[in-house]
Automatic annotation (TrEMBL):
UniProt cofactor note: Binds 1 FAD per subunit.
Record field: catalytic activity: N(6)-[(R)-dihydrolipoyl]-L-lysyl-[protein] + NAD(+) = N(6)-[(R)-lipoyl]-L-lysyl-[protein] + NADH + H(+)
Family annotation (NCBIfam families): lipoamide_DH
EC number: 1.8.1.4
Localisation per UniProt entry: Cytoplasm
Phylogenetic classification of the source organism: Bacteria, Pseudomonadati, Pseudomonadota, Gammaproteobacteria, Pseudomonadales
Name used for this protein in its record: Dihydrolipoyl dehydrogenase
InterPro entries the UniProt entry points to: Class-I_Pyr_Nuc-Dis_Oxidored, FAD/NAD-bd_sf, FAD/NAD-binding_dom, FAD/NAD-linked_Rdtase_dimer_sf, Lipoamide_DH, Pyr_nuc-diS_OxRdtase, Pyr_nucl-diS_OxRdtase_dimer, Pyr_OxRdtase_I_AS
Every Pyridine nucleotide-disulphide oxidoreductase dimerisation domain range: 353-462
A Pfam family recorded for this sequence: Pyr_redox_2
PANTHER family: DIHYDROLIPOYL DEHYDROGENASE (PTHR22912:SF224), DISULFIDE OXIDOREDUCTASE (PTHR22912)
Subunit text: Homodimer.
Organism the protein comes from: Pseudomonas benzenivorans
Domain FAD/NAD(P)-binding span(s) in chain numbering: 5-334
GO MF terms held by the record: dihydrolipoyl dehydrogenase (NADH) activity
Length: 478
């Protein structure tokens, strides 16, 4: 007998598993299909983010930063640490344990909320039927009143540097190195490339980042991007902009990369090469030809503002649809869709999705950049505050970077908060909360911030918007 559900979710990543749990909480009979296997051959929930993305990369970023501090920066605190060394396999093992705990946690949440897990590959057929192909090749078809497509994304391959997961790796392979490469190349100066490059640079690798674009971090505010370039270069990352990779050759466990830049043809040799040029949606085996769901030529599924596809009752969320490929965006889309299926009029504010790069210092922003607003002809007032003037940052010996608040010159409404510095992601989230409620810079300036905190830098930047900062000299108004 065919199993019937109110909701079937294909994919158990941060979009899919959240959608499934929320749907079940709303009283809907829910199933979630997942095929990803861990190294032991067991189904692992959590998608790219939990297994080979957000979480493991943060584990390595934190471990490598602690090593870097112990080796080079404990002396300033009066702490003597001689002969500090790194055990790479132990660091990778810790990362694996964190992943195991979290993916197991999702399984527990499925059980607690009554979500049925179907192990295997899900494919949408006509009439909201879903074919599930188990790992042993057997198939079953389940019926759903509603289907949520949440199959995620995978790294983009480039012909000039084919991944072998040995010498040339993608972001997944870069999380599994068992020793520190002497020379490491990274193709792509985006979020993933900079984060992974930072990990291995802190551990002693000589890192060169090769980026095809002429501009560094074009999505970030110009002032923040310039500060980031300066800081990361100072930390030892060699960032080559306007460099287009034309080919590569692996010989004797080394890879020679050919690229062209403003100076012509170039060649560099590395012990390992990470290809981090972006991600693409996993939709090739997701839809039967008669499913009725429309996609574009790049494999993204067409949806409206509420994530509904061209087929009534079929939705798509996360990395397979328009917008930033961010775990938190996928999760909130999952919640919105589950609520809409349950009859609620849920919406999502796509204008206030924070972006974060977890280098050290962190780089984060929410809302619009100064260059975007100028391009739109919006008059703005800008306030900045450097962490060099923050007592809490000084106490932590972490004074690099600044907070920037951008407000509408006519209404004083905050339109963007941009941070490079300690706890940037947390400070930007404070800005996002205020902006969700339509805060003005004056509102933020009138709030009481505890002292001494890093948050005071946001307070002071908001005050600086209108020339009222206390702990730095204000710009004179013309």
């Amino acid at each position: 007998m065919t199993q019937k559900f109110d909701v079937v979710v294909i994919g158990a990543g941060p979009g899919g598993y959240v959608a499934a749990i929320k749907a079940a909480q709303l009283g809907l009979k829910t199933a979630c299909i997942e095929k990803y296997q861990d190294k032991e051959g067991k189904i692992a929930l959590g998608g790219t983010c939990l297994n080979v993305g957000c979480i493991p990369s943060k584990a390595l970023l934190d471990s490598s930063w602690k090593y870097y501090e112990a080796k080079d920066h404990f002396a300033i605190h009066g702490i003597e640490a001689k002969g500090v060394s790194i055990d790479v396999p132990a660091m990778i093992g810790r990362k694996a344990n964190i992943v195991k705990n979290l993916t197991g946690g999702v399984s527990t949440l499925f059980k607690a909320n009554g979500v049925t897990l179907l192990e295997g590959h899900g494919k949408l057929l006509a009439g909201k039927k879903v074919e599930v192909t188990a790992l042993d090749g057997t198939t079953q078809v389940v019926e759903a009143a509603n289907v949520i497509l949440a199959s995620g994304s995978k790294p983009v391959d480039i012909p000039p540097a084919p991944v072998d997961q040995d010498v040339i790796v993608d972001s997944t392979g870069a999380l599994e190195f068992q020793s520190v490469p002497k020379k490491l190349g990274v193709i792509g100066a985006g979020v993933i490339g900079l984060e992974l490059g930072s990990v291995w640079a802190r551990l002693g690798a000589e890192v060169t980042v090769i980026e095809a674009l002429e501009k560094f971090l074009p999505a970030a505010d110009d002032q923040i991007a310039k500060e980031a370039m300066k800081t990361l270069t100072k930390q030892g990352l060699k960032i080559r902009l306007g460099a287009r990779v034309t080919g590569s050759e692996v010989k004797k466990k080394q890879v020679t990369v050919n690229f062209t830049d403003a100076d012509g043809e170039q060649q560099l040799t590395f012990d390992k090469l990470i290809v981090a040029v972006g991600r693409r949606p996993v939709t090739s085996e997701l839809l039967a030809s008669d499913s009725g769901v429309d996609m574009d030529e790049r494999g993204f599924i067409f949806v409206d503002d509420q994530c509904a596809t061209s087929v009534p009752g079929v939705y798509a969320i996360g990395d397979v649809v328009r917008g930033a490929m961010l775990a938190h965006k996928a999760s909130e889309e999952g919640v919105m869709v589950a609520e809409r299926i349950a009859g609620h009029k849920a919406q999502m504010n796509y204008d206030l999705i924070p972006s974060v790069i977890y280098t050290h210092p962190e780089i984060a922003w929410v809302g619009k950049t100064e260059q975007q607003l100028k391009g739109e002809g919006v008059e703005v007032n800008v306030g900045t505050f450097p962490f060099a003037a923050s007592g809490r940052a000084m106490a932590a010996n972490d004074t690099g970077g600044l907070v920037k608040v951008i407000a509408d010159a006519k209404t004083d409404r905050v339109l963007g908060v941009h941070v490079i510095g300690p706890s940037a992601a947390e400070l930007v989230q404070q800005g996002a909360i205020g902006m969700e409620f339509g805060t003005s810079a004056e509102d933020l300036g009138m709030m009481v911030f505890s002292h001494p905190t890093l948050s005071e830098a946001l307070h002071e930047a908001a005050l600086a918007v209108n020339g009222g900062a206390i702990h730095i000299a204000n710009r004179k108004k013309r």
